[in-house]
Amino acid sequence: MEGRLRIAMIGTRGVPARYGGFETAVEEIGARLVEAGHEVRVYCRSGGERMREYRGMRLVHLPAVRHKVLETLSHTALSVGHLLGRRTDVALVFNAANSPLLPLVRAARIPVATHVDGLEWKRAKWNGTGRRYYLVAERLAVRWSDEIIADARGIQDYYRERYKTASVMIPYGAPVQEAVDEEVLRAAGYEPGRYHLVVARFEPENHVDLIVEGYTRSAATYPLVVVGSAPYAAEYTRGIERLAEADPRVTLTGGIWDQRLLDALYAGAATYLHGHSVGGTNPSLLRAMGAGAPVVAYDVNFNREVLGETGEFFADAASLAKAVEDAEADPARGRARGDAARERARTEYTWDDVAARYEALCRDLLAKR
Asked: Who contacts 263 (Cβ-Cβ below 8 Å, separation ≥6)?
């Protein structure tokens, strides 16, 4: 084994992963870096549970301002302050919004790579000021990072075209399920293969409202199960709730934190309906593919890149309605598409490969510095 690295992972809610793609990536990558012999420190936002170690990673819990604009940056500022007093070989910063703090990391002569996520400025939750901030933050990430990490070719293309800069493309990984846990599904009241599934935060760019609207226009007989919520989108959530209240076939479950049940829901779905439109490689989409779910996704380049030939796509309520009706009319075709998606996830999106690429990046950063 080459030399042991001290790696800091900054800018997320931390681990165990309970929220989104960044947190899942930190957990899966960080644990594998530990297994490879490295020391990994993960900065976590203070909550009810404060473990000092998880899957071999050392956890540092620090507070954050609970506000959609200030939460990420306030926590990262405290994390960077802590980082500067600790011996660190490489820092991995997640989210371009944290880029104003990068000069402090560089001043300490710590090589830093920034995982820029998707096109955050396009998210509807940001007003004009928020969008302008994210566009400035992108430019600063390019200027002050030793390396930019993109999780999709579409994100690489965006940074190349807009900022004339190269980036390292490292996607997320996909957990693979070979079978449906029918016992868990039935105990929760779901019939395997006889429901449509959405798992998403309730934000406009995830098109949950469009999916629910399209489903309510359809003649589908299988129920629609919608898993998710949003901390800062009360008005948008109320719109989805109104659509659901008008159709008894629609069930809003809120967030589901029982991973065994959530895995079973992915694996047992007649279709997984994916509306995300501004991210790169989306972890929920990969989880559905790894579970063998037939995916019907919103028609954008990121989703086409990940799904390849295994996906079907919708652009409006009418095409979504047709997709769920077609899936119920020909379940064998759906199962074949799901099997193909699982195989694509198994070969193209593995966490072991992702972690190995992060390890190589960290070594390259340290060598250049």
From this structure: 175, 177, 181, 287, 291
For 3-60, the pLDDT digits (tens) are 899 999 999 999 998 767 789 999 999 999 999 999 999 999 987 678 999 999 999 9
Is CATH 3.40.50.2000 the classification given to domain 182-348?
A: yes
End-to-end CA distance of the chain: 21
- Please tell me the distance from the alpha carbon of residue 248 to that of residue 256, in angstroms, as a whole number: 20
What is the secondary structure of 170-202 as a DSSP string?
---------S--HHHHHHTT--TTS-EEEE--S
How does pLDDT run across 92-117, given as a tens digit for each residue? 999 999 999 999 999 999 999 999 97
**DSSP at 96:** G
Domain boundaries, the chain: 6-173+350-368, 182-348
CATH of domain 6-173+350-368: 3.40.50.2000
